[in-house]
């Protein structure tokens, strides 16, 4: 029953969120378009529920500068000044409300990872795709990108097996707290999670 209610809540809350955040969205689009040569958005294929691939949309926080071999430069050399700001306050996640509205994502669920990781999952890790991915989730309020892959997968699977309104409400409230106080955000050299190789 909650799965039906959850989808309704996702639709209504994401719609309200987009309407309330419209001024912020417009301002960020203009600023990021200037900073990123007319490209304010970042789109990338990600696996959703039952491993169905969709395109996630985020605000673009990094430029596309490459080295002499045509490879993208490291994160710390590509992130823009405005990109640091939008990441610091998780503003880059706002466009994912469109993914939620469309039904590809939920407000709460395991974060959608890269498509290239799909063949690397074991049977346990693959359970994270039993539900829709979310903008925030159980792993995000229990370490975010400061925990290991093994811990992240255990937390993700725990959520799929214990999803409830009470759990989702707790995740939303703690997410707001962590964003406001910038907790569990790795600001060191490896801002992003290290690459998952199937053995983590």
The termini sit apart by 35 Å
Which descriptor suits the 3D outline? globular
Strand count, sense and barrel status of the largest sheet are:
2 strands, antiparallel
The chain-level mean pLDDT equals 90
Which structural class fits the helix and strand makeup? mainly alpha
Q: Could you give the count of β-strands?
A: 4
Radius of gyration: 17 Å
Number of helices: 7
The percentage of residues in β strands lies in: 5-15%
Pick out the low-confidence regions: 186-190
Order of helix and strand elements from N to C terminus:
HHEEHHHEEHH
Write out the strand line-up for the largest beta sheet, numbering strands in chain order: 1-2
What is the helical fraction, as a range of percent? Answer: 40-55%
Would you kindly provide a written description of the structure presented here, covering whatever features stand out?
The protein is mostly helical. It has a two-stranded antiparallel ribbon with strand order 1-2. A two-stranded parallel ribbon has the order 3-4. About 2% of the residues have low confidence. A hairpin with a 5-residue loop joins strand 1 and strand 2. It contains seven helices and four strands; from the N terminus they run H-H-E-E-H-H-H-E-E-H-H.
How would you describe this structure in keywords?
two-stranded parallel ribbon, mainly alpha, 200 residues
Task: Compile the SSE list and pairings.
Layout: H1 2-20, H2 22-35, E1 41-47, E2 53-59, H3 75-78, H4 81-88, H5 96-102, E3 106-108, E4 134-136, H6 149-162, H7 165-181
Parallel strand pairs: 3-4
Antiparallel strand pairs: 1-2
Helix pairs in contact: 1-5
């Amino acid at each position: 029953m909650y799965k039906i209610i959850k989808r309704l809540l996702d639709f209504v809350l994401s719609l309200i969120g987009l309407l309330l955040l419209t001024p912020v969205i417009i301002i960020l689009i203009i600023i990021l378009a200037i900073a990123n040569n007319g490209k304010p958005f970042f789109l990338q294929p990600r696996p959703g529920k039952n491993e169905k691939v969709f395109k996630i949309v985020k605000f673009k926080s990094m430029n596309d500068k490459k080295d002499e071999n045509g490879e993208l430069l490291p994160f710390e050399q590509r992130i823009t000044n405005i990109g640091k700001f939008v990441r610091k306050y998780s503003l880059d996640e706002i466009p994912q409300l469109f993914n939620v509205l469309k039904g590809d994502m939920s407000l709460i669920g395991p974060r959608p990872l890269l498509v290239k990781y799909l063949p690397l999952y074991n049977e346990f890790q693959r359970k994270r795709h039993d539900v829709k991915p979310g903008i925030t989730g159980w792993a995000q309020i229990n370490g975010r990108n400061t925990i290991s892959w093994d811990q992240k997968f255990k937390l993700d699977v725990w959520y799929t097996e214990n999803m409830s309104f009470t759990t989702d409400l707790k995740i939303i409230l703690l997410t707001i707290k962590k964003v406001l106080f910038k907790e569990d955000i790795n600001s060191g050299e490896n801002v992003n999670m290290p690459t998952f190789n199937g053995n983590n």
